[in-house]
């Protein structure tokens, strides 16, 4: 039986007036196609390594001829931050020039802006749909100065006499603040003895699917031999960005054969060439899942095998917590919840039971702290399908999390996965109301009924806080300006936490 946990990314980006005034408008989202479709650029996000050091990571897929150069914009007069060794992890493939704006030269990118440049060597070919990732560090001041970043890539071809000719140079602009960040130490990294696991951002593809980037750092001395990612159960198909079952998935230096098991909601990356993916090296795995599934239950169970080492962790892009992943002795076939006029109806079924005394239904307001609200007797021993149900009539409005605690007759117990259910049926009696919703005008109102101090937060669909406000006791309504919030159209979550409870409501900005 699969089990999953929850976590929240809480990283806030800043920008400056100079950065907004001097740079062009972004030309797309976090994944961008060039006009000729020769390039697919992707901004994975930024990871805070230290108090004053950010690590930025991009991906590039070259669909035409060979890549000659790629350049990433830096603030004028600045260089990418140290240590220099990070720029030479793939030194066999690229010559790296740091902070050199150039208009000429055989091994430099022709850019009108200051940049860090990755120049492909003659013996290295990135073409025909191959993908590389590019990583570099920036000081916090330089990162905050770059509210947008220009990225320019150039193809090459060999003319008569083996003379390199530069062709097909194209440029895109990324909005760094709008794209999902990578996690930083102590934020949304689940640490294990032999591996660390992290959420590396998500992109809504606009077609009913979302690409979720998951990062794994292998701490073992042996190279990674396989990685698996298991998603929340869904009737829709899952996959890997740009690939079908059996394809080879390539990153900066590593290559995997992809095997997708739709029945088990499981994706396996079997190593084809992972030399060097050891001793602290990291890689990112891009999973494509249904958007509605991701927004309701963004759970992912990751495992990594390296030599004799095996590590696993459950991750969720909402809460940044982890629990041990262990199967239930009862074979649980399903566990689902839905809001009704009578309350939140929970239903689950078992394929078999062994020594099962009871199920304890537990509820949580934040996905972390659970409390028992009911008991349902088990069947003891069974080899046939059994169905169970319970209706939570005490749940208020907002988002609630539920799990089952299966208890044996000898007292041993195991937990099920967590399901999240939004109770809209009780909205009329809620002590917090957000309107108009969807928000089609400039103003959004939040009606409150709290007698104690409270805090209001607005988070985007990736768990990033976009607004925070302290609420005085007795406040009845807050008016917010969408223009002042400076947030794009999309799905958001409005959180209110006072001394006694936490409430969450969705907000759609149109």
Automatic annotation (TrEMBL):
Residues 434-509 form the Secretion system C-terminal sorting domain. Pfam families: Por_Secre_tail. Keywords: Signal. Residues 1-21 form the signal peptide. This is T9SS type A sorting domain-containing protein. It comes from Pontibacter anaerobius.
